[in-house]
Write a structure and sequence with these properties.
Elements (H helix, E strand, L loop, with lengths): L1 H14 L41 E4 L22 H7 L3 E8 L4 E5 L1 E9 H14 L5 E7 L5 H11 L20 H6 L4 E5 L12 E3 H4 E3 L23 H6 L3 E5 L3 E3 L6 E3 L4 H4 L10 H12 L5 E4 L7 H9 L21 H21 L2
Parallel strand pairs: 1-2, 1-12, 2-5, 5-6, 6-7, 8-9, 9-12
Antiparallel strand pairs: 2-3, 3-4, 10-11
Helix pairs in contact: 3-4, 9-10
Bound molecules: 2-acetamido-2-deoxy-beta-D-glucopyranose (2 copies).
The site of one 2-acetamido-2-deoxy-beta-D-glucopyranose has 4 residues, from loops.
Protein name: PI-PLC X domain-containing protein
Keywords: Signal
Pfam families: PI-PLC_X
């Protein structure tokens, strides 16, 4: 009985294994001869003068859901490295999923019994610490509001974490072509943008909590095949096409993470086996990040604004990012260790065997049904 209930829960949770969602500089960088060196915004001087909506922000899908020792290498984990490491590496979008806990919003993956990364507020404090230490960075948060929490709950988490003091508040609510430049957002310290699903804008109680689908459209998130990535609008359904969304000044988000099916169980888990291909910079290989971004740029007539990946330190996600942004002067990033396969005893190799063990145990539990 315990097994069946738990198995159902885990199966359901894994099946819905979630969906979904982008640095800066300091003013005085004088060189010894007195001339000012160019200052970087989101790791590049050439991005400072670009508007927020003219940049591709690379994001970590389920950035808190780790496949590491802290979660016993959970097979539902989407990342090897945490959100601070993602920001250090140059990612500027963090996507999370929240569930209603007893008193707080919790970062859980599909179900809190499957993976619970603690209160949203505590995690946001760590992001705020990073924002303090990195004053020239524009960062975006994308929250999947799984239990339909009200806007004030998210505003409260922003206030408690300190992030509300640097949060972006729009002058007029809703999709717009008139986003500020990264430099303007940095100068005015409105460099933390929060999008949340499943709520309406509340300008009074939660001015910094932007309803995602009033601003952003997404491509399909449940991709199971390497040839399944495309640039078709999936959500919000009311907009019927990417062309329509773009004409209404929506920001674009390409979901670029792949699930694989576990046998005949009808369960999907983040696909580790194909991660080098999925996160490849190639612009010709089927299923590659570079190929997907390039296709969307061509189809949309502009760069994708956001792209979400799993296991960001595997493959060549940062190279693909610089390529789509046409950036060649990147600076200030910390190179994370390679998370990809092919090096023998690297993280992915170890985790793969652990995942397999977990999978066998999981299969056995389901079989007991
Ligand atoms: C990530 O891990 C480092 C230590 O390894 C820690 O200092 C940091 O606070 C963590 N960040 C998050 C968001 O968990
Ligand atoms: C994009 O993928 C979705 C989901 O698989 C599919 O429904 C849609 O038809 C695809 N778009 C194109 C143009 O093939």
């Amino acid at each position: 009985m315990w097994f069946s209930a738990r198995s159902c829960l885990v199966a359901a949770a894994l099946f819905y294994a979630s969906n979904a969602l982008p640095q800066a500089t300091s003013a005085d960088d004088s060189t010894s001869d007195g001339a000012s060196a160019p200052v970087a915004c989101n790791n590049s001087p050439s991005l400072c003068s670009r508007r927020y909506n003219e940049v591709t922000h690379l994001g970590a899908h389920n950035s808190y859901a780790l496949r590491d020792a802290s979660t016993d290498n959970s097979i539902s984990g989407n990342q090897y490295l945490n959100a601070t490491r993602a920001l250090d590496a140059g990612l500027r979008l963090l996507q999370v999923q929240t569930h209603q806990g007893d008193t707080t919003l919790q970062l859980c993956h599909s179900s809190c019994s499957l993976l619970d990364a603690g209160p949203l507020e505590d995690w946001l404090k760590l992001i705020n610490t990073w924002m303090n230490e990195n004053p020239n960075e524009v960062v975006t948060l994308l929250v999947v509001n799984a239990d339909n929490a009200v806007p004030a709950d998210f505003q409260s988490a922003l206030v408690q974490s300190g992030l509300s003091e640097r949060s972006y508040v729009p002058t007029t609510a809703g999709a717009t072509a008139d986003w500020p430049t990264l430099q303007t957002m940095i100068d005015s310290n409105t460099r933390f943008v929060s999008f949340v699903t499943n709520l309406d804008y509340d300008a009074t109680a939660a001015p910094a909590v932007l309803p995602e689908f009033d601003y952003v459209f997404e491509t399909p998130f449940d991709v199971q095949e390497l040839d399944g990535f495309n640039c078709t609008l999936d959500r919000p359904s009311g907009l019927d096409s990417a062309t329509n969304a773009l004409s209404q000044n929506y920001l674009s988000l390409a979901n670029h993470f792949k699930y694989s099916s576990l046998g005949t169980l009808g369960i999907s888990v983040p696909d580790e086996d194909n991660i080098e291909t999925v996160n490849s910079k190639s612009i010709s290989e089927v299923g590659a990040l570079g190929t997907h971004l390039d296709a969307c740029r061509q189809e949309w007539g502009g760069v994708p604004n956001f792209v979400l990946v799993d296991f960001f330190n595997a493959g060549e996600t940062i190279v693909a990012l610089d390529s789509i942004n046409d950036v060649s002067d990147a600076e200030g990033r910390t190179q994370p260790e390679d998370g990809g396969s092919g090096a023998g005893l690297n993280a992915a190799g170890r985790l793969h065997s652990t995942s397999f063990g977990a999978l066998v145990a999981f299969g056995a539990a389901v079989f007991l049904l």
